[in-house]
Amino acid sequence: MDDKEPTTIKIWDVGIRLFHWALVILFCLSAYSAFQDKFGIYANMHLYAGIATLMLVIWRILWGVVGSDTARFSQFVKSPAAGFAHLKQMLAGLPYKSIGHNPLGGLSVVLMLVLLLAQASMGLFASDGMIFSGPLSAKVAGSLASDFTEWHALLGRILIGVVVFHVLVVLVYGALKRVNLVWPMISGKIEGDSSVSAPTMKPGWFALLLFIAIGATVCLSVF
Questions:
Q1: Among 58, 160, 175, 178, which residue carries the largest CB count within 10 Å?
Q2: How far apart are alpha carbons 212 and 171 in whole angstroms?
């Protein structure tokens, strides 16, 4: 058999794929409700979307330690120098022979997780003193809740910019490299060759149990 016979390789487990698309939906709900009057449905939408985002981000951080090979930080987190080297390599049209996140993509994953964790956490303690208050805002002293509100609003705008940039990068990467990065995050698979070792995938039930444990812990801590 030819070592380079075409084959299909599974690179993203079901947990990572559900995390990604659930986060897309929650971010859209959070961003949309942030620019609406904080009454009734929009206040509830913003609150629960934020709490669900916090659960997802905590899950992703832990999954980056105990999850599938391609989900682990140890597999894709490289130095900034490696990220810039990959950018030069991409612009030069050179192939990147690896599966999962490339060095630049790995750095963007870490950045997004840090920003989302900070954003969702600050939202719990934020309060405008009149209409909207996070469920833990009473636990902070003085004007700190108001400060959290301002930081939360500022970081929210930064995150919108980061997300827009992320989408543009995916589109540009597809145009330059002719690689569809969206479909593998739906199907979990890419076309490769038989000389490439498939990464080890953790089962979906393990990802679900971990998320249930995180969700229960967050809910007990917040409500």
A1: 58
A2: 34
pTM: 0.91
Query: For the range 81-90, what are the long-range contacts, defined as Cβ-Cβ under 8 Å and sequence gap of 24 or more?
Result: 83/107, 90/173, 90/176, 90/177
Can you list the residues of the chain whose pLDDT is less than 50?
A: 1-2
pLDDT given at position 52: 98
The domains located in the chain, with CATH, are 6-222 (1.20.950.20)
- Please check whether residue 112 is in contact with residue 166, taking contact to mean a CB–CB distance below 8 angstroms: yes
Each residue's pLDDT tens digit, 51-110? 999 999 999 999 999 999 999 999 999 888 887 887 777 777 666 667 888 888 899 999
Alpha carbon distance 16, 48 (integer Å): 21
Which residues are CB-contacts of 213 (< 8 A; sequence separation ≥ 6)?
Answer: none
First-to-last CA distance in the chain?
Answer: 59
Residue 45: in which H helix or E strand, if any? helix 40-66
123 neighbors 151 (Cβ within 8 angstroms)? no
Q: Round to whole Å and give the CA distance between 95 and 25.
A: 32
| DSSP 8-state assignment for residue 178 | -
